[in-house]
Design brief:
- The protein is mostly beta strands.
- It has a single domain, classed as YmcC-like fold, CATH 2.40.360.
- The protein contains 2 helices and 15 strands.
- It has a 15-stranded antiparallel β-sheet that branches.
- The protein is globular, with a radius of gyration of 18 Å.
């Protein structure tokens, strides 16, 4: 199996088959992550969900805005990064994504839109809307957002240590991949200036290009919010740590 590209993996993390209790409602949430590389701050990423549902192509959706600030430590300055996602309110699958990136030298401004009736996903630049890339749409597969929200609803009390669980993830124009996690148990973790019980996961599959796959650890808060609070990744480019800096619901 060909390893995933590490850039796609990091993108998917910006955005990380039991699902959907109907009471789950992320409206009005804001969560902020701090990303460091080898102990130095590298980025800060803010996610915010609108309070009100929006209607997109007759589908009720949560609108999620993602903004990233990347420090000069990574050699990138004057970056304006914004991603807007519309996620349907039942299985939390992304229906449309608008990605804008400008580092002062180059600019990307493009749309990824799901077309379930045509069983495909369209990706195109707003500058060249007729030049489209097509991806297959799988009704029984997830995307990065739906996996994120499903993990927040998973009943970890039903899992035993070392037990695995998986999702079918829409990956690229070549199709889907199975993403497999291993539950390692519950552990008290240091989160900011406090400690908190967390569910610990490791990444099993797929292998990721330039990443030591067995080094990946994800800590999920063992509370009603079940927020991914920490993520450790060792890559050929260094050691990355993502930490939940703040979480609130308006």
């Amino acid at each position: 199996m060909k390893p995933w590209n590490w850039k796609f993996f990091l993108f998917a993390c910006i955005f990380l088959p039991n699902w959907a209790v109907s009471q789950f409602n992320p409206a009005g949430e804001e969560w902020v992550y701090k990303v460091s590389k080898d102990g130095n701050e590298a980025a800060e990423i803010t996610f915010q969900t609108d309070k009100q549902l929006q209607n997109l192509n007759n589908t009720k959706c949560y609108k999620i805005t993602t903004q990233a600030r990347i420090t000069a430590f990574l050699g990138v300055v004057n970056v304006n990064n914004k991603i807007t996602s519309w996620v349907e309110n039942q299985r939390f699958k992304a229906q449309k994504v608008h990605i804008y990136y400008d580092d002062g030298k180059s600019k990307n401004n493009y749309i990824v839109e799901c077309k379930p009736q045509q069983k495909q996903i369209e990706a195109y630049s707003l500058e060249k809307p007729n030049d489209k890339r097509l991806f297959p749409w799988f009704a029984d597969c997830e995307d990065a957002w739906s996996v994120f929200f499903q993990i927040r609803q998973k009943d970890f009390s039903k899992l035993k240590p070392n037990e695995t669980f998986s999702y079918c993830l829409i990956a690229d124009e070549n199709g889907s991949k199975e993403i497999v996690f291993r539950y390692l148990g519950k552990k008290e973790m240091s989160l900011g200036n406090k400690t908190q019980d967390c569910y610990i996961l490791s990444w099993v599959l797929p292998a990721i290009d330039e990443v030591e796959t067995n080094s990946i650890r994800i800590a999920i808060t063992a509370d009603k919010n079940q927020m991914p609070a920490k993520m450790y990744v060792k890559t050929k480019k260094g050691f990355f740590l993502g930490e939940l800096k703040s979480f609130n619901k308006k």
